[in-house]
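Batch manifest, entry 17 of 40.
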Amino acid sequence: MIPYVFFMKIGLCNNSAVKRSAYIYPGSYFKEIELYKNGSPGLKPEDGDSVNGFQKITLLPGEQCQVLLRLRPVKNDFNGLNPRLVSDNFIEDFTSYSVAYKSDIQIFGTVLSGVVLMMILFMLANFILGPKPEFFYNALYSLCMFLLIFFNSYLTRKTTLFANFYFSYLDFFLLVTGVIFYITFTRKFINTKENYPTTDKVLRYGEYFVLFLLGIYTYLNFFTGTYLPQFYLENIMKVLILAIGVFFIYFAAKQKDPLLNYLAAGNAMLVFFSAISLAILLFNVRNNSLFTNALFYYYVGIIFELFLFLLGLTYKNRRELIRGIKEQEALKLEAEKKEFETQLAVIKAQQEERNRISADMHDDLGAGMTTIRLYSELAKSKLSDNSIPEIDKISSSANELLNKMNAIIWSMSSSNDSLGNMIAYIRSYALEYFEDTGVNCRIDIPDNLPNIEVIGEIRRNVFLVVKEALNNILKHSKATEVQITLAREADELCLYIQDNGIGIDMDTLRQFGNGLKNMKKRMADVDIEFSIENKEGTLVTLRRKVAQF
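Output type: structure tokens
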């Protein structure tokens, strides 16, 4: 019936003694309203004013007339004639009441549009913080749904040009545009291009097809006078939108992806409540409350859908955040691993160089020093009773230098980097050092020494401190016995050097010179606790935690 032009014939009479004006209101949604008075043929539009779809007519005192309204309705499927005659002095109150009065569904729609607006702001905030296209496209889809719900609630019973344009075209345009944004959001949300290439192709062609149908609908609306093709096309597209929702439910159930579950749940809610809305329309359920209004269930379905989509986005965002943190940790560990390998390579190269130097010292310098020592001893034997002091000094210095060089070679060789090797070297040196001195040296070492790596720097400094302690005992303590003990106490290793001599004078240490200071410094350099005290003689203690080796 919409393509037709309708005429309404009205008989009016002014029984008062003064000129009276009134407004004729045929109904809400008419794009053309023309008023004719008194005459046929040769009807002419009334020259009176019109107010938002109200046509004004003025009658003289006692005047009677026939009024003819020519009406062209707006293209929608819920229009109808609802004629009213409103007196001139009541028109402002009548129009204000029409606009101000809100039905339950209008109030409900206004509240829901506020909720959707909050969702849109939340999604836009997330998009700005970390640009992710799925947040943007879902915000656009939600914006279309917001405008749809808001304008449906705000423009009902309005007679403005925008209200006519909205209910004839813009509402359906927002619905279809929202579907296009929804499809794009879905493609970005589950990354169909990489994860589901076939589905991505189907969805892309689906977008093009929906755009094509929207173009046809736009042409029919603006450039034709018919309505039935447009009406059928609108219903076909609504069925297509419903089919897209059902397809996503089936697709998600088949894939069993947590992300797809949110899409499936959202679509299931929209399909379910849309089915209830459609059933109310098909069975002509009387609209006498909010819960018998078809729009109520459609709005509820949209809200549930948007809420579940928002939950899905939040879940995906959290999952990607956790994955990003794990990737950063993995990269950090990889970098640390590479740095450790680099340091290890440097240490290995240094150790190889140390081994080479120690080997060269042993082969070249050691052989040379041994030759000097042998020649000096041979010279002494040839001189027999005519001993020359300088030759004795050469022999003694060569021997001492050879011992020092052997100690340096021992500390530089990586093959000696163990606790057992260090203790064995100290034991051998101590027994040899006190041989033929009148000092009885006892060494107490546990059988089950821990397998600990002791680097050359620590071994060398410990040996030099032990050597200095033994030298002090022999020179100053007047001891007859020395006890060297290695013990493990809780989580520490302790090396004790105890003599039975006169003890150390803690008030005056001039007899030791810089020896004690050097011992303390060497131990501090390798993070070993050092102490010296009087305890039935002199007790030197070296202490370090096992975990620090």
